[in-house]
Specification:
The protein is built from four helices and 17 strands. It is of the alpha+beta class. The protein has two domains: 5-120 and 253-259, Diaminopimelate Epimerase, Chain A, domain 1 (Roll); 127-240, Diaminopimelate Epimerase, Chain A, domain 1, CATH 3.10.310.
Amino acid sequence: MPPIPFHKYQGAGNDFILIDQRSRPYLSRKDSTQIERLCDRHFGIGADGLILLQEKAGYDFEMVYFNADGGEGSMCGNGGRCIVAFAHHLGLITDSCRFQAVDGPHEARRRANGWIELRLGDVASVEQGQGYYFLNTGSPHYVTFVDDLQAVNVYQQGRAIRYSERFRAEGANVNFVQVQGNGIAVATYERGVEDETLACGTGVTASAIARYLQTPANGLQTIPIQAKGGQLEVRFEPKGDGFTNIWLCGPAERVFEGTV
């Protein structure tokens, strides 16, 4: 395998390996073993996931996302924001773009302060059970509210839910949420990473919607989020039993680049 040039990005501590494949293909969906090794924090570069930026007719680019276990993943919100920052760094886009991901097209904008705003797909419905909410914001998320987030063993309790009888086959991301003033604090166990991550974009989005369902209101909602890796913001509008105009906003920063 020839040397692969890469860039490392993070969004609120959720970190990714970014590879520009417009001029040549370095990796493909068949390279799951190598992708897993590149994401390994001891034997590789280290990341929560790896993202390929590729050309796509009719769009500014295509995003192909892989989890840290080497398998192609569902939509990753913070990864989506990071690839937009990467595309801006490459000079591929200016302050807005439209790209294709595994769950369909997305649009994104870059704020003057460097924050990236990513529009996620609509949510058609939310399942409400005893002590939990379950919904898909590009990835499937289980949301439960707690009184003291610091007291939660996110790995142990999250893994127990993720590998429960209902979710064992396809997996689910598990979010623990504590209400803080007009916002929420969130900790997430991510499938594919199979551990807690410092932030999860689709997870905080699901958590913000769940919080809204506890105290419904009319019109555009803006909910500040405290993840363990930093601040995020989620905006959305309720529409019937679902939600539309959903935006995930926050920092997306280039950490370093290299060749592996």
